[in-house]
């Protein structure tokens, strides 16, 4: 407990901000509603297709062009974004592990739609090619970009975009969470560049690549107030149940 208190004080001191994490989104985005080309059906040609354009029929032709985990996960994420864009809550529910509480209560539909809008807004700005880190096994997939350093005159930060998926026993994906900027910022103050770099690395390093930073693995908050449990920052699945520590932390 003492360790936890020390950490909390330190975090407050350096002004750590963990940026926007969209756990279990849904939502509506009040963006300019001009027609979107992709939503407009393209008229079928009335003429018979040339024989060379006829695709052969074979089992599995409706599958994506690639079964690579990244491609499957990315396509699935795009489906989730499309549901958000269209305020299709049932659609969102069909692809996420769990929706936010505001989306479970019809009385807060407006808040839910706002959340869906934010999810679409942030999610659609992500670029597939940036996700150069793909961590995957039979129970989960994490897509992550490399870290970026961002700074202005007063603060410096290190962050990356990250998307978490879990798989059910049949291998079907569910989106667990995504964050367009997961990381840490610290105010510059009088610290040297070396000190600042060391600090932002300390608060963003994830050595075992389970989606959870080393320093958080020292003490993950539990449902019981003021309590936390440590996980092994060098082991993805500390309790050996198959789910990685970073995935389990989000599921709770
Ligand atoms: Ca970790
Ligand atoms: Ca586990």
Question: What brief labels describe this structure?
Answer:
252 residues, alpha+beta, transmembrane, 2 domains, Nuclear Transport Factor 2, Chain: A, globular, transmembrane helix, membrane, 29% helix, binds calcium ion
Plain-language structure description:
- With 252 residues, the protein is an alpha+beta fold.
- The chain folds into 2 domains: 140 residues, Nuclear Transport Factor 2, Chain: A (Roll); 48 residues, no CATH class.
- The chain is built from 7 helices and 8 strands; from the N terminus they run H-E-H-H-H-E-E-E-E-E-H-H-E-E-H.
- Strands 1, 2, 3, 4, 5 and 6 form a 6-stranded antiparallel sheet that branches. Strands 7-8 form a two-stranded antiparallel ribbon.
- Strand 2 and strand 3 form a beta hairpin.
- It is globular and about 50 Å long.
- About 20% of the residues have low confidence.
- The site of one calcium ion (CA) has 8 residues, from helix 6.
Succession of helices and strands: HEHHHEEEEEHHEEH
Helix percent reads: 25-40%
Distinct ligands, ions and cofactors found in the model: calcium ion
Overall CATH class of the largest domain: Alpha Beta
Domain count: the total is 2
Mean pLDDT: 82
Number of strands: 8
> Largest sheet at a glance?
6 strands, antiparallel
CATH architecture of the largest domain: Roll
Question: Which percent band covers the strand fraction?
Answer: 15-25%
So what's the overall shape?
globular
- Kindly provide the radius of gyration, computed on alpha-carbon positions and rounded to a whole number of angstroms: 21 Å
Low-confidence stretches: 6-56
Structural class: alpha+beta
CATH fold-level label of the largest domain: Nuclear Transport Factor 2, Chain: A
Question: What is the straight-line distance between the termini?
Answer: 21 Å
Number of helices: 7
């Amino acid at each position: 407990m003492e360790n936890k208190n020390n950490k909390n004080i330190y975090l407050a001191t350096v002004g750590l901000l963990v940026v926007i994490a969209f756990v279990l989104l849904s939502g509506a985005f009040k963006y300019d509603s001009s027609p979107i080309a992709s939503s407009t059906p393209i008229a079928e040609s009335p003429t018979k297709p040339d024989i060379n354009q006829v695709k052969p029929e074979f089992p599995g032709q409706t599958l994506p062009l690639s079964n690579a985990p990244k491609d499957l996960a990315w396509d699935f994420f795009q489906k989730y974004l499309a549901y958000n864009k269209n305020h299709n809550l049932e659609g969102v529910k069909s692809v996420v592990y769990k929706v936010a509480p505001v989306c479970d209560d019809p009385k807060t539909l407006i808040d839910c739609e706002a959340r869906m809008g934010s999810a679409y807004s942030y999610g659609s700005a992500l670029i597939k090619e940036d996700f150069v880190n793909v961590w995957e096994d039979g129970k989960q997939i994490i897509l992550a970009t490399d870290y970026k350093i961002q700074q202005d005159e007063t603060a410096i930060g290190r962050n990356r975009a990250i998307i978490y998926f879990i798989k059910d026993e049949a291998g079907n994906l569910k989106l667990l969470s995504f964050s367009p900027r997961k990381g840490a910022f610290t105010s510059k103050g009088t610290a040297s560049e070396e000190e600042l770099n060391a600090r932002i690395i300390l608060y963003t390093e994830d050595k075992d690549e389970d989606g959870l930073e080393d320093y958080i693995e020292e003490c993950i908050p539990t449902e019981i107030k003021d309590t936390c449990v440590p996980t092994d920052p060098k082991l993805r699945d500390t309790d050996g149940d198959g789910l990685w520590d970073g995935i389990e932390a989000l599921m709770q």
